[in-house]
């Protein structure tokens, strides 16, 4: 189950565009997927334009400058962890020279309402790491041993080539029932993993969660090792990335939403357009989130109602759903909670609170503030938000009864809330049980006859295990590779997690 190298399919082609050959590429979306594609193409001599709708790069990882308590903080869209199998990102991190902006972070801590606290840290070669972790669990019961061994076989024999056909049509809940998964195992091991898909357990297809378990835990004895940024992600990642792109001649435009695409000719090539201004590009990479991609195609289909290629793409996209909305609230307090609480805590049973991060323990600027003031900065991730339309200023009151269950000490009289900042989003794709077979891949537009448009983003299907940020950057690289192939420029190699569980050895 070592990672797999995907070599260029055209290894004898030149590594950059030949002199005198000029190619314009439009990349729509300046999140991880779009920037990953931009980096590869700009390095290979392409004339790259990135258009990002928001005023800053980063997408779901962007940092917003917030003035609070007389200081400016760069507040990330939410805490992010980078895992061992994030090979594409590691390569990018190395090439941008930003490794020093990351630190390894140890064990994963979990708190539950109905179970004892868990600390998970994979140690030792597979399967000893899994066995050791389960045996160490305070929730493990000897009577469950046979069920656990039986369920472990699923993970040991994970097969990415067939998992979506076999389990893509049933939900996670149905799968746990059919397979007789012990409730504590589902609740304490699988549900926390499930929650970070931002999907509901009653909807999410079982294949996706089996893939997550393989990718983040059982597929590799180091899979659960993670690193986190030491500073905000704009400083750590996006500013250096933008500088590199610009040094390669790429144009990076923010506050520049692309409304629709145009078909330049009958042979179905597309050219991206901005409102009011048309210009044509040799290639377009659509690296926006699913909701934005659907909007762009709705606009486009209104302009080209009879274009069969357009209708083909549009039909597929319209069937895909979005996951429920989420919120992230970062709160500045005058005091700190007990040092016995882990800096990063997963709390998937305390809906809607899924994760709590004490920022003053992990991030430079927050730590400096806390050392000066004695205060703390704590971030609460609220997934599958089910409280309707709540104003930012009312979010704390909505969730504080649940916060009180986890940290009662925050609610004593002299523990004061000094300020807060709320991020909200509805930009995660749903992975429901009935629709997995139609999830597009990067090259889906070519199946509809549109050959110079590729998709990139974390909502796509990949032929190798991947998720979230690594799916974003790796699909960006696949999209770039499609462009390179069509122009006879050598593709960029890729390293991906193995498709097979360790049982296949
Ligand atoms: C709170 C939170 C915590 C998370 N934690 C983790 C984690 O710990 N580990 C992990 O791996 N992942 C995590 N994720 C997921 C991760 O952030 C995403 O998977 C990843 O950032 C997706 O990147 P992307 O490029 O595919 O999409 P996005 O980041 O959504 O980028 C798409 C970009 O397209 C732009 N755009 C949209 N419409 C247009 C338009 N019309 N014209 C031009 N631009 C447009 C958007 O503004 C956006 O910048 C987390 C996400 C959130 C919200």
Give structural notes.
The chain has 505 residues and is α+β, with helices and mostly antiparallel strands. It folds into three domains: 4-60 and 233-320 and 432-504, FAD/NAD(P)-binding domain, CATH 3.50.50.60; 62-84 and 95-104 and 323-425; 120-218. Helices cover 34% and strands 20% of the residues. The protein has helices at 32-43, 87-96, 128-136, 145-156, 163-167, 172-179, 183-195, 206-218, 233-247, 290-303, 308-318, 364-373, 392-406, 444-447, 468-486, and strands at residues 4-6, 24-28, 47-51, 63-68, 71-76, 82-83, 102-105, 108-110, 118-120, 226-229, 251-253, 260-263, 270-274, 277-278, 283-286, 326-333, 344-350, 353-358, 376-382, 417-425, 453-455, 494-496. It has a seven-stranded mixed β-sheet with strand order 9-8-17-18-19-16-20, with helices on both faces. A five-stranded parallel β-sheet has the order 11-3-2-15-21. It has a three-stranded antiparallel β-sheet with strand order 6-10-7, with no helix packed on it. Strand 13 and strand 14 form a beta hairpin. Helix 1 runs parallel beside helix 9, helix 1 runs parallel beside helix 15 (468-486) and helix 10 (290-303) runs antiparallel to helix 11. Residues 272-276 have low confidence and may be disordered. The site of flavin-adenine dinucleotide has 34 residues, from helix 1, helix 10 and helix 15. Flavin-adenine dinucleotide is lined by residues 28-34, 51-54, 59-61, 77-78, 80-81, 257-258, 287-289, 292, 296, 328, 381, 425, 427, 457-458, 468-469, 472.
């Amino acid at each position: 189950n070592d990672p797999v190298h995907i070599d260029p399919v055209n290894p004898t082609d030149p590594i950059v565009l030949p002199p005198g050959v000029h190619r314009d590429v439009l990349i729509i979306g300046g999140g991880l997927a779009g920037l990953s594609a931009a980096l590869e193409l700009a390095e290979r001599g392409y004339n790259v334009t990135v258009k990002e709708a928001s005023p800053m790069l980063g997408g779901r990882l962007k940092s917003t400058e917030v003035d609070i308590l007389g200081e400016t903080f760069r507040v990330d869209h939410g805490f992010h962890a980078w895992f061992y199998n994030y090979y594409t990102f590691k390569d990018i991190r190395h090439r941008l020279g930003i490794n020093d902006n990351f630190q390894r972070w140890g064990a994963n801590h979990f708190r539950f309402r109905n179970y004892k606290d868990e600390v998970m840290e994979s140690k030792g070669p597979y399967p000893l790491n899994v066995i050791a972790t389960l045996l160490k669990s305070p929730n493990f019961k000897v009577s469950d041993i046979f069920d656990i061994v039986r369920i472990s076989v699923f993970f040991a024999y994970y097969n990415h080539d067939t998992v979506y056909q076999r389990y893509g049509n049933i939900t996670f809940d149905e799968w746990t029932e059919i397979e007789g998964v012990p409730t504590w195992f589902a609740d304490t091991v699988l549900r926390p993993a499930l929650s970070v898909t931002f999907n509901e357990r009653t909807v999410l297809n079982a294949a996706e969660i089996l893939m997550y378990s393989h990718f983040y835990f059982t597929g590799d004895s180091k899979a659960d090792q993670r690193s986190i940024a030491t500073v905000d992600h704009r400083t750590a990642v996006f500013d250096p990335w933008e500088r590199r792109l610009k040094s390669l001649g790429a144009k990076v435009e923010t506050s520049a939403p692309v409304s629709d695409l145009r078909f330049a000719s009958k042979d179905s090539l597309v050219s991206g357009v901005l409102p009011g201004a048309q210009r044509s590009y040799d290639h377009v990479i659509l690296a926006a989130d699913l909701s934005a991609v659907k909007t762009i195609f709705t606009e486009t289909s209104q302009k080209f109602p009879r274009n069969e290629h357009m209708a083909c793409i549009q039909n597929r996209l319209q069937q895909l759903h979005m996951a429920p909305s989420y919120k992230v609230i970062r709160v500045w307090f005058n005091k700190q909670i007990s040092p016995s609480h882990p800096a990063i805590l997963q709390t998937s049973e305390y809906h809607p609170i899924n994760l709590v991060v004490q920022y003053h323990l992990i991030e430079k600027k927050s730590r400096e503030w806390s050392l000066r003031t004695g205060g703390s900065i704590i971030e609460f991730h609220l997934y599958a938000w089910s409280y309707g339309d709540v104003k930012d200023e009312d979010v704390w009151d909505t969730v504080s009864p649940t916060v009180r269950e986890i940290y009662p000490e925050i609610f004593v009289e002299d523990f004061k809330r000094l300020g807060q900042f709320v991020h909200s989003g509805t930009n995660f794709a749903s992975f429901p049980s009935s629709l997995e077979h139609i999830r597009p891949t990067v090259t889906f537009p070519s199946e509809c006859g549109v050959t110079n448009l590729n998709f990139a983003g974390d909502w796509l299907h990949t032929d190798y295990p991947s998720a979230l940020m690594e799916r974003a950057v790796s699909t960006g690289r696949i999209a770039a590779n499609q462009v390179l192939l069509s122009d006879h420029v050598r593709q960029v190699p890729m390293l991906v997690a193995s498709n097979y569980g360790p049982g296949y050895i």
